[in-house]
Amino acid sequence: MEVIYEDNHILAVNKACGEIVQGDKTGDKPLSETLKGWLKEKYAKPGNVFLGVTHRLDRPVSGLVLFAKTSKALARLNEMFREGTIQKTYWAIVAQRPPKEEDELTHWLVRNTKQNKSYAYDTERTDGQKAILHYRLIAHSDRYFLLEVDLKTGRHHQIRCQLAKIGCPIKGDLKYGFKRSNPDGGISLHARSASFIHPISKQEIHIVADTPQETLWKVLTASL
Asked: pLDDT grade, residue 49 (50/70/90)?
């Protein structure tokens, strides 16, 4: 667990792939509970510790997750996520060069809950949600390409689904068409940064999460 930002109202963590943000049917201990224990010990807090989950990050994804330490911050951060005023940037490693160096993708995503998977369509569907993202190619090696992705909407598996739709499934993402899994069971998608106006102090906040300590990440990010 790597805490990368903390003040009286907000806690930001660099999540490792494989960790769950919030409790689910697996029964595995979620990051939120680990952090509550950490806060309780750090500040010698009696009783229960408040920690609000403001958004999720898929289990196989690494990177920045924001939590709220107060109910006031939680309510305001939730509203900011709904309104799209928190700018989140992701980095994704793919094995296929994208059709364009930079592009905005618009699809309609239909979620299959039984498969825990979303399907992307080019035309509007009544059972789908509109999904928009912007990507640009920022680095590459002989075999892999690093994309920077800015989400305009927040849909289920949006980045994974939309990149797969244009022929660029994320490295290690078997669910969306990549041929081989990663050794750690994760996928090469990293929540890199978040920029927003602090919900209480109104100061500009910019938080960056270091990429995983793997050779390929180091190679692709060396010149950035």
From this structure: very high
